[in-house]
């Protein structure tokens, strides 16, 4: 795992990207959305959100906020504030001060980031930790091993700088869920790290909606507690009927349990809530494929790739759909996913399985040898290696890998009964035995 960021060297490029400068020290107009702290400011629609929930601002207060966030760290005097935030209209210094204080009040504890220097002006001073949080979010969005570990470096450094910052611990907890979901670390390790960060975040800042969602996800991802996870998600959905994330998680959970009609209903509700929600683009093609809605899955997967071309998961989904349909174009999609995320072992295993299926066994064997050679250093999800071995005609070894996945509690095993890649194995008595054990584990947990 890489070491901590060097603030002076590693973060400087990202600070410059976030706050570009031109001659004279004036920041050019940014169009947004702009994130700072828990807030997202959409300059194109004049809307402000805190943790995804819109907050109301008077138009003049919004204009002051807009000018400040476009010029963080710079002292803005009275005349410049009038020119930029009041459009040149003459109002008293008292009116400006009252408006700025109203903004500080709306921002709550983050209002302290706005400083008022009597006789000099105003400035928005974003702490160093917030630059790290922003860079961490950027890395996390990449969906690769290196991206997630770089995000981990950022968030851990924030907890070093500000150990009582609940948002940093919450970000860490959610990041460990991503790491577990992508099978980048052994499930037990990712689960343990999630719980540590989760409890720290709750201790410091209470239970947020994001933390409730994260806990529900961990219940079925790491602990196979599907009934508890469903109850949590239903409660969240009832409290926030417009939250797409709750619908998507319910759809995934219902699909895992074979409740395909309910899964498809939840996907429709998620689309009504937010048709562009990123996780919807990843979950929907997978659910449709496992429901054997192949034409719909293919159309959805194509759209997902168009919307999120840099996500390895959208290409993996499209590759699986094409592969099930017998289209060798699947190879292209798996190769793109491996190119985007060459450091995620199971994605390499998925590409190798497809290579073997379409007659390129020597290349598949080379990848398999590399995965096995590096297994002492990197976690390789045995679930995906099993299907690679089956494609190479090594069925006994494939079942050995599935047994290993069972012992390691691979989250992917929850898909075993629905996974299209399981089809060649279904008539083998060992498959039924494993499936029954996986199902009983889920029921008893």
């Amino acid at each position: 795992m890489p070491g901590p960021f060097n603030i002076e060297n590693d973060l400087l490029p990202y600070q410059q990207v976030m706050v570009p400068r031109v001659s004279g020290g004036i920041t050019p107009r940014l169009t947004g959305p702009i994130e700072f702290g828990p807030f997202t400011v959409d300059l194109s629609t004049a809307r402000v959100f805190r943790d995804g929930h819109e907050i109301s601002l008077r138009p003049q207060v919004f204009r002051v906020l807009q000018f400040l966030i476009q010029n963080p760290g710079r002292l803005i005097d009275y005349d410049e504030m009038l020119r930029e935030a009041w459009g040149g209209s003459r109002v008293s210094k008292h009116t400006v001060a009252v408006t700025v204080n109203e903004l500080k009040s709306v921002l709550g504890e983050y209002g302290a980031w706005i400083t008022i220097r009597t006789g000099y002006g105003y400035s928005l001073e974003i702490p160093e930790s917030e630059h790290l949080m922003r860079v961490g979010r950027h890395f996390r969005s990449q969906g690769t091993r290196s991206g997630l570990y770089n995000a981990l470096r950022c968030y851990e450094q924030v907890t070093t700088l500000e150990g009582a910052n609940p948002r940093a611990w919450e970000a860490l907890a959610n990041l460990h869920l991503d790491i577990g979901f992508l099978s980048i670390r052994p499930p037990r390790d990712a689960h343990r790290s999630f719980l540590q960060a989760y409890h720290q975040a709750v201790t410091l800042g209470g239970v947020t909606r994001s933390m409730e969602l994260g806990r529900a996800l961990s219940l079925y991802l790491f602990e196979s507690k599907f009934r508890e996870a469903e109850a949590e998600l239903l409660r969240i959905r009832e409290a926030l009927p417009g939250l797409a994330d709750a619908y998507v998680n319910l759809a995934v959970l219902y699909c895992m349990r074979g409740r395909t009609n309910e899964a498809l209903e939840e996907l429709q509700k998620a689309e009504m809530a937010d048709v562009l929600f990123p996780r919807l683009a990843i979950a929907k093609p997978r659910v449709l494929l496992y429901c054997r809605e192949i034409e719909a899955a293919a159309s959805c997967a194509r759209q997902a790739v168009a919307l999120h071309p840099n996500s390895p998961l959208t290409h993996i989904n499209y590759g699986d759909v094409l592969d099930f349909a017998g289209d060798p174009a699947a190879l292209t999609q798996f190769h793109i996913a491996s190119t985007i995320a060459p450091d995620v072992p199971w994605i390499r295993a998925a590409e190798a399985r497809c290579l073997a299926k379409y007659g390129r066994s020597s290349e598949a064997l080379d990848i398999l040898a590399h995965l096995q050679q590096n297994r002492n250093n990197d976690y390789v999800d045995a679930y995906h290696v099993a299907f690679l071995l089956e494609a190479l005609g090594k069925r006994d070894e494939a079942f050995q890998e599935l047994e290993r996945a069972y012992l390691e509690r691979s989250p992917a095993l929850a898909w075993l009964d629905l996974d299209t890649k399981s089809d060649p194995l279904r008539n083998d008595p060992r498959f039924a035995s494993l499936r029954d054990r996986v199902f009983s584990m889920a029921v008893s947990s």
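The chain is about 65% helix and 5% strand. Residues 187-205 form the longest helix (19 residues).
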